[in-house]
Amino acid sequence: MSFTHLDESGRARMVDVTAKQPTVRAATARGFVRCAPDVVAALRDGAVPKGDVLAVARIAGIQAAKRTPDLLPLAHVIGVHGAAVELHIVDEGVEIEATVRTADRTGVEMEALTAVSVAALAVVDMVKGLDKATSIEHVRITAKEGGRSGSWTRPGEQ
Q: Is position 125 annotated as part of the catalytic site?
């Protein structure tokens, strides 16, 4: 078995995608921030002392998608041509979904995961004064489109 991110000597390397043709690609990721009931109530009432949690988290997620190669050493610098981060307050906390799009030589799965992860971190940062037990759960890719492997949807996800 060969690994694409290792050279012949077993050293880490960035995969060379120079010869690949740019194609339209997209990836969607989801995650969840579990919060105490009083935090959920504060989120719904807009009463979190640090301000508009969902707006801050949305912008943090979009910004994170664009900065992915700064965080992941083997990620390619690609054009993030679209990034949408949606947050929904539910009884147990905050559901987060990010969809990232590009027309480039490699996919945007890491950008979608980074967007969800940083949006979740922003939620935790904004509410940690209300509940130190707030936690991030189930960050995962739920779908991808484009590229050599085509479209894929995680079983059980819509």
A: yes
Residue 70, pLDDT > 80, answer yes
Residue 16: inside a domain, yes or no?
no
Average pLDDT of span 92-105: 95
Handedness of CA 108, 64, 121, 91 (dihedral sign): negative
Whole-model pTM: value is 0.91
Are residues 78 and 102 in contact, defined by beta-carbon separation less than 8 angstroms?
Answer: yes
Answer for the pair 111, 27: CB distance below 8 angstroms, yes or no.
yes
Residue 151 falls inside a structural domain: no
Catalytic residue of the set 70, 104, 125, 131: 125
Q: Round the CA-based radius of gyration of the chain to a whole number and report it.
A: 17
Q: Write out the residue range of the structural domain in which residue 107 sits.
A: 30-146
What 3-state DSSP class applies to 53?
helix
CATH of residue 45's domain is: 3.30.70.640
140: left (phi over 0), alpha (psi -120 to 50) or beta: beta
